[in-house]
Amino acid sequence: MAIRKKLVNIFAGLWRGIDGLRKVLHLVVLLFLFVVVLGTLSSTAPPLPSKAALIIAPAGSLVEQLDGDPYDRAVEELLGEASPQTLVQNIVDGLRFAKDDARIKVVVLELDRLGGSGLSKLERIADAIDDFRESGKPVIATASSYSQGAYYVAAHASELYMHPDGMFLPQGFGIYGNYYKNVLDKLKIDWNVFRVGTHKSAVEPYLRTDMSDEDRVSKSRLIDQLWGKYREDVVAARELAPGSVADYSNNLLTLLGEYEGDFAQAAKGLGFVDDLLTRVELQRIVSAYAGSDKDNDRGYPATSLGDYLVHMRLFDSVKSSEQNVAIVVASGEILNGSQSPGTIGGESTAKLLRQALRDEDVKAVVLRVDSPGGSSFASEQIRNEVEALRAAGKPVVASMSSQAASGGYWISMAADKIYARETTITGSIGVFGMFQTYQRTLDTIGITTDGVGTTPWSGQFRLDREMSDDAKRLFQAVVNRGYDEFIGKVADHRNLEKSAVDTIAQGQVWTGRDALEIGLIDGIGGLEFSIEMAAELAGLETDGYGTRYIEKSLSPTEQFALDLMSSAKWVGIDLASIKVRSSSLERLAGMLEDAAKPLLRFNDPQGMYAYCFCSIE
Asked: Which of the four pLDDT bands, split at 50, 70 and 90, describes residue 295?
């Protein structure tokens, strides 16, 4: 009995200890939730130093719109899993705010992580840098090594530095792609293609193993113009001798030989950078403008672009008013149905335009287009909404970013005015259709198909049956009609003869400079210029209107959940540390999925597309 009593006392003590620990843990959890909720409900803009450097460190590609559902992406960013992208508008806004902000003494561009971007996007940032420099405040560009795109931005800085072990190699522009004919043949897949347009090269990867002569001529003309603009702009920004960039690229090995193979010394000796500095040496230069701060890892007071924008946008009074120009971003491939941001959905983008139509405070709309095209059906849905806005008396201006080609031009052509950069890629007016069948693939593993139908068309469009000649003729007729409608609508909207449109169509790709000459656009200008023109068309006073982005927003529940997670991060909890790391198999599956996207992304209900494979590297 004594032993039993002792055991009872021991277990009772253990239970009391466990119960006490449970209560303590409950209290800790409740206190944590209280702090998080309090932080969420009373969150304010992050404090800014009275004197600081603004750090702009773009990562990944420059985009008009971040990819993915807003909530999912925000969670991924908190967990450190989001794919790196940088909104061009964020950089432009940051420089605009900082120009007249007495607290910002210097802007530091950290450009190591800037990825590939369209030249027109780089131009817009360069314009914003030039405008900021009118304040008299310096812009310092720095990188361990400069990519071609990063250097274009850096060239507009007042001071340009590189690490002593860095390099700058201007490779020029190119358009390269994968061709699938051999693999389709090996897999015994019949990839039936129907097209109109002598230069409609989007289907070539499925029919050929290399680039056609027509496509080579068209794309060469395109990249030669863009490369010429790049060289001219860099030479002008850096005040270099004419031809400096071309000479460096064309005679790289000879020039490097003069500097014993040292890329960094060659870049300095030829005037591409002002000096070669280590991190410590750069810190001293920035500190001379911003002051010193021993508590900051950088050695000087600084604020990141993200924190700075959170603060400044809370107090930005130029958001919207009773009269607004709405901005609807159409970025990415055009697909049927409802799509997440970063992809244009026939239904989802049309819904945003209808929202602008119903909003009585919206007096004009700017459709910001950055797209290679896609589904013809979805493109027509969006064009219909543009026409509805115009019919309601709300003028629409199409503002083309890096590319507005094929379907990207389709959704733009109904606008009152179309503006683009000289370096915008547009045109590619043409249509194609594709229908793949797998009967030969199935036959190799012993599967055949047979049956009966009530009409000649029964079973004609099964993936496991070969397309008949009649089915092919029908498909081609649909594509021919689609092309005829495309050029007919262009002719109507642009006040051109249909025969003249056919001459400049045929799938040919043009720069913005060419597009202006042949009548596809109304002028050269960026987003800000397009907003001004939209306001002018609506009869709005210069200082009497606001701007309003119409985009998919978070629900109150989603916003609260994100605020909770943000506050948890604010109180010191590293959410990224508790995420489950993806396995090697998952990473491999992701790579295979990316590789298969060119074959799987098309979803037009009629199998008809207006698309341009014209991505510049």
From this structure: confident
